[in-house]
């Protein structure tokens, strides 16, 4: 498949990104509604989605803001939720690290869960793709996702309370992450980290300011990394 025309990889990525609209749109709508109900203005809400550009971190920060949590706790929680982006970047740098600086900067900005998931799977399945093909595929994958996140947030602000309760937009949050995470559970380290994060998040859910989420994320990443190191050592001995 690597002998396909360069431009086709953009559209291949585009097609793989399209299904995520089924969860990105209600996810964005929900954030627009919740942020408005929390007292954010339309401009603030749109700026939040455009600048932070990270749905899970936005919801976590918004929840803590509504509880009048200390500023440092809000920042620490948002950073902890988004620590996965640092791992995404490190993983993608193997495949896209030789791109020009301006392209890497743009990739970093639009690197969300959906674009990472489909891109890393494609790159690992087709390791002989050229750098140009990888870049085209990545930007194709984010084209339907990222603009619609902003648009959906705006629609959520505009529609607000007119969205009926029976639509249950909050279904999009868990489904979005299940759709992303499930195909990426490829190693024992991945599965152990996922299980530990789930168990700890549930056990520590009673801690104030969602601190249980912080602890669960940090512990799961440490354990997952250690398991992967051990597995690599065994493979080389």
TrEMBL record:
One of its GO terms (cellular component) is plasma membrane. One of its GO terms (biological process) is L-valine transmembrane transport. Signal peptide: none annotated. It is found in: Cell membrane. Pfam families: AzlC. Its main location: membrane. The keyword Nucleus does not apply. The keyword Transmembrane applies. Keywords: Cell membrane, Membrane, Transmembrane, Transmembrane helix, Transport. InterPro entries: Brnchd-chn_aa_trnsp_permease. It is a multi-pass membrane protein. The chain crosses the membrane at residues 20-40, 47-65, 71-96, 137-160, 166-182, 213-231. PANTHER family: INNER MEMBRANE PROTEIN YGAZ (PTHR34979). Belongs to the AzlC family. This is Inner membrane protein YgaZ. It comes from Octadecabacter ascidiaceicola.
């Amino acid at each position: 498949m690597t002998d396909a025309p360069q431009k086709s990889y953009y559209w291949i990525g585009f097609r793989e990104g399209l299904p995520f609209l089924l969860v990105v749109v209600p996810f964005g709508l929900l954030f627009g509604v919740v942020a408005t109900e929390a007292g954010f203005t339309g401009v603030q809400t749109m700026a939040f989605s455009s600048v932070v550009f990270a749905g899970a971190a936005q919801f976590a920060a918004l929840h803590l803001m509504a509880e009048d949590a200390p500023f440092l706790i809000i920042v620490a929680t948002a950073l902890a939720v988004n620590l996965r982006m640092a791992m995404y970047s490190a993983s993608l740098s193997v495949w896209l690290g030789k791109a020009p600086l301006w392209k890497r900067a743009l990739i970093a900005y639009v690197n969300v869960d959906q674009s990472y998931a489909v891109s890393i799977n494609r790159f690992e399945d087709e390791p002989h793709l050229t750098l140009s093909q990888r870049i085209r595929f990545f930007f194709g994958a984010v084209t339907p996702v990222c603009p619609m996140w902003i648009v959906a947030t705006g629609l959520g602000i505009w529609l607000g309370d007119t969205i009926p309760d029976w639509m249950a937009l909050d279904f999009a949050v868990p489904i979005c992450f299940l759709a992303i995470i499930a195909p990426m559970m490829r190693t024992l380290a991945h599965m152990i980290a996922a299980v530990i994060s789930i168990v700890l998040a549930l056990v520590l859910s009673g801690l104030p300011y969602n601190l249980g989420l912080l602890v669960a994320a940090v512990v799961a990443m440490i354990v997952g990394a250690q398991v992967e190191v051990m597995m690599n050592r065994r493979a080389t001995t």
